[in-house]
Backbone:
């Protein structure tokens, strides 16, 4: 896996390099990053990195891959498990093809009857065909739903002050995408964007620094819950010029988005029960209410 990432990163880097042949090749940069190069070559590459930002960025990326924490790596899926999953998928596909063949055979028999001389058999056969078609369509739909689960994209946008070289917030305001653990300052602004790949239902929540849970979307008093349209970007609060303003209560704040193909029942009661609980308890409970949950926490100072 590491070798693949390294080769892909190096290929992307080479696209933007001048065609002068002055940059070290992939093998030299890898040896340099791993610390297994002799002193003379090491000194030459160090001088090159001072003047070449692309090679420098590539070496930084190599170090991140080489020194990636073992506890954060995804476990390898055993070959036997992959084989069983593949066999299960193939069996399901065979079942669908078998059902389609049965439908085809029923249709052929249906049109081979004499409609006038045999009205009762025709009616029975036609009813059986219609029932079987409906059964196959519903089965196929459920099968596709299982193979293509709902997917959710989320981003938090912040308007915050720029940090000076002394480590304190300055006067300049910038707009940026907030990542896990980033910092926003009181009286700054933020907004939330999300998008579903299929029609469904979404709920946007904020767990603030005072251990209170707020429902940001949909409106808490909405009588009829509206479906979220697929491939459509939703912004909370609505409107291009609308933002949430951060108050003076500092601490850690967390944004949750829950998504489901059907409305999630009992959420209001759940929100009431979660008020004042710890962040870990809130995360655990909300993840039990929906199959798709996105979580992002940022520091409020």
Residues:
């Amino acid at each position: 896996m590491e070798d693949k990432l390294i080769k892909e990163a190096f290929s992307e880097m080479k696209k933007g390099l001048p065609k002068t042949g002055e940059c070290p090749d992939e093998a030299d940069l890898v040896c340099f990053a791993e610390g297994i190069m002799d002193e003379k070559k090491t000194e030459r590459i160090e001088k090159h990195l001072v003047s070449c930002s692309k090679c420098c960025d590539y070496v930084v990326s190599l170090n991140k891959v080489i020194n990636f924490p073992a506890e954060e790596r995804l476990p390898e899926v055993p070959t036997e498990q992959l084989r069983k999953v593949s066999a299960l998928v193939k069996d399901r596909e065979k079942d669908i093809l078998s059902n389609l063949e049965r439908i085809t055979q029923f249709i052929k028999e249906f049109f081979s009857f004499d409609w006038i001389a045999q009205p009762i058999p025709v009616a029975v056969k036609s009813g059986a065909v219609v029932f079987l078609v409906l059964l196959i369509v519903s089965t196929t739909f459920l099968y596709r739903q299982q193979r293509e689960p709902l997917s959710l994209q989320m981003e938090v946008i912040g308007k915050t002050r720029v940090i000076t070289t002394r480590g304190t917030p300055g006067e300049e305001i910038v707009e940026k995408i907030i990542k896990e653990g980033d910092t926003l300052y009181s009286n700054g602004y933020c907004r939330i964007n999300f998008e579903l790949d299929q029609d469904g239902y979404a709920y946007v929540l904020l767990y603030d620094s005072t251990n209170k849970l707020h429902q940001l979307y949909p409106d808490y008093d909405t009588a009829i819950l509206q479906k979220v349209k697929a491939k459509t970007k939703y912004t909370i609060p609505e409107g291009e010029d609308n933002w949430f303003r951060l108050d003076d209560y500092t601490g850690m704040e967390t944004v949750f988005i829950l998504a489901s193909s059907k409305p999630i029942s009992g959420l209001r009661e759940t929100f009431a029960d979660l008020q004042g609980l710890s962040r870990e308890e809130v995360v655990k409970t909300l993840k039990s209410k929906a199959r798709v949950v996105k979580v992002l926490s940022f520091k409020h100072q």
About this structure: Residues 152-300 form one domain. The radius of gyration is 29 Å.
